[in-house]
TrEMBL record:
This is Phosphoacetylglucosamine mutase. Catalyzes the conversion of GlcNAc-6-P into GlcNAc-1-P during the synthesis of uridine diphosphate/UDP-GlcNAc, which is a biosynthetic precursor of chitin and also supplies the amino sugars for N-linked oligosaccharides of glycoproteins. Its EC number is 5.4.2.3. Binds 1 Mg(2+) ion per subunit. Keywords: Isomerase, Magnesium, Metal-binding, Phosphoprotein. It comes from Myxozyma melibiosi. It is an enzyme of class 5 (isomerase).
Length: 548
């Protein structure tokens, strides 16, 4: 055996013994249900997460080693969930969600029953994937404002130290900021660096692009933004500071991050979307634009009230339609040809939005399962892929070839050049790594300014079918299995037939049931021709679940 080999073996043994040693400090709780890497990583009550986060640190190190030392992100957040929850998710080098094939390793690590079993799993994954345990690895991590965050960061650091990783703490930041930073780090040495890998770099990039795309346009009217008492509040304030009041003015409400128990309570994007009403703290002013972020600022929904104080929601479907319409118009004016714009939605998309996109805008629409990870990949198949979940999570992806085509296009008129410039600035306003509430805010304000529209003109493109989303707590949400992009249940057997029978009775009726991947519950969605019917259909389908 060569000395090198001997040294390497010793290093591996040392690493495995460190993993076991630290694992004994971060023991898996006695917990009947298995941990699962769900829609957005692991998410549950924070007091159950210590061992999971420690183990995610180990996996992050392996993932980085597998990818030749590219930086992997780890975000500690539970986004829209209540204050007592927390969660953890991994970010791949280009700022995307963790590659799906690795979720099984995450789940295996989280469920290992003993310190020894964990070290064995770690070694097995390295063997299976031919990962050198002495290869360099780098991790960037951050957290939201939850009270449980600092303790979970300690668990993560133990995992990273045990695995011998190099790591950088980016502190408290929004989830999309960390996605942005990870991409910046990994593209720094390439021919197209994404930006400066810091929060300051993020603000600088967004502000410069917004100013460029708004050149010659009137400053947007005052907007009121509900920050869900989460990390988005202070980060939005920082962005506004960089933008300057000459570019944008906003009133931020629900920005109390010190009172951590207020997070997402009676406010935030999820509350507004599901309750279809104004959040606490927002005073209704007719025809003014409002927006709500979620707890980690990766989702946004807009809304307004009319003169009669009637509430109108402008959700992810409305944002997707607005963005697709604007981009198509710009492409047409620019004269740039052969750029396919497509939209990606999920089963939660309002039926009217899909009809508008397909029949009026004539854009292709893909439907995927819930979860940004699914939508993102489907959107990458278009030259310009607009993806939004109805809950306000989404972005617009411009392919590298499209950016190149725009940059090298020879415009025949100032009008064409202006449209091309607007498209290019728009691509920089929009966070290309993941759905980002702050960047989406600027996107929407840009389109409204270019169209000289207020919220009611935006809302007029199509009328939503009345809909209702209900959360139902069941004994075992994992018993609910779906097919057809979650639009139909396969199990429990017979349930889909019962839903179909109910749906038949309603004009424009549609309803589906799926297990949440972020909460211990199932979600029931229903839409129908009238508010009363949509509510009734949701109630009746929910009642079917109670009998199980
Ligand atoms: C996460 C995911 C979203 C998903 C949402 C709800 O959002 O990133 O893609 O729509 O959970 O998922 P589910 O219905 O499975 O609970 P966030 O903003 O909570 O991170």
């Amino acid at each position: 055996m060569s000395l090198d080999q001997e040294q390497q073996d010793q290093m591996i043994l040392h690493q495995l013994s460190q993993i076991e040693k630290f694992s004994s400090v971060h023991r898996r709780p006695d917990f009947d249900t298995n941990f699962a890497y769900g829609t957005a990583g692991f998410r549950m009550r924070a007091d159950l997460l210590d061992s999971v986060v420690y183990r995610v640190g180990l996996l992050a190190a392996l993932r980085s080693r597998k990818l030749d030392g590219e930086t992997i992100g780890v975000m500690i957040t539970a986004s829209h969930n209540p204050p007592e929850d927390n969660g953890v998710k991994l970010i791949d080098p280009q700022g995307e969600m963790l590659e799906a094939s690795w979720e099984v390793y995450a789940t295996k690590f989280a469920n290992a029953r003993s310190d020894e079993e964990l070290a064995r799993e770690y070694f097995n994954v390295a063997e299976t994937l031919k990962i050198r345990l002495d290869a360099p690895c780098k991790i960037a991590y951050g957290r939201d404002t939850r009270a449980s965050g600092p303790a979970l960061v300690s668990a993560l650091k133990d995992g990273l130290s045990a695995a011998g990783a190099e790591f950088s703490d980016y502190g408290v930041l929004t989830t999309p900021q960390l996605h942005y930073i990870v991409k910046c780090i990994n593209t720094a040495e390439t021919s197209s660096p994404y930006g400066e890998p810091s929060q300051a770099g993020y603000y600088k990039k967004l502000a410069a692009a917004f100013k460029a795309v708004m050149k010659g346009k009137p400053k947007p009217g005052l907007i009121t933004i509900d920050a869900a008492n989460g990390v988005g509040g202070p980060k939005l304030a920082e962005l506004l500071e960089v933008l300057g009041s000459e570019s944008l003015e906003a009133v931020i409400v629900n920005d109390d991050v010190e009172a951590t128990q207020k997070l997402n309570q009676q406010c935030g994007a999820d509350y507004v979307k599901t309750q279809q009403k104004l959040p606490a703290g927002a005073e209704p002013e007719a025809l003014q634009l409002y927006a709500s972020l979620d707890g980690d600022a990766d989702r946004i929904v807009f809304y307004y009230v009319d003169e009669a104080k009637k509430f109108f929601l402008l959700d992810g479907d409305k944002i997707a339609s607005l963005a697709a319409m604007f981009i198509q118009e710009l492409l047409e004016v620019s004269g740039v040809e052969d750029v396919e714009v497509g939209v990606v939605q999920t089963a939660y998309a309002n039926g009217s939005s899909t009809a508008y996109l397909q029949d009026v805008l004539k854009v292709p629409v893909t439907c995927t399962s819930t979860g940004v990870k699914h939508l993102h990949h489907a959107a990458q198949l278009y030259d310009i892929g607009v993806y939004f979940e109805a809950n306000g999570h989404g972005t617009v992806l411009f392919s590298a070839a499209t950016i190149k085509a725009l940059e090298s296009f020879e415009a025949a008129s100032p009008g064409q050049q202006s449209a091309v410039d607007t498209l290019l600035s728009l691509a920089d306003v929009i966070n290309q790594t993941v759905g980002d509430a702050l960047s989406d805010l600027l996107l929407v304000l840009t389109v409204l300014a270019h169209k000289s529209w207020g919220p009611s003109e935006w809302n007029m493109a199509y009328t939503d079918l009345p809909n209702r989303l209900v959360r139902v707590v069941v004994d075992d949400r994992f018993a609910f299995k779906t097919e057809d992009a979650e639009r139909r249940l396969v199990e429990p057997q017979g349930l889909q037939a019962q839903i179909d029978e109910l749906v038949k009775k309603y004009k424009f009726g549609r309803s589906f049931v799926r297990a949440s991947g972020t909460e211990d519950a199932v979600r029931v969605y229903a839409e129908a021709a009238t508010r009363l019917e949509a509510d009734e259909l949701a109630l009746k389908v929910s009642e079917l679940l109670k009998g199980l």
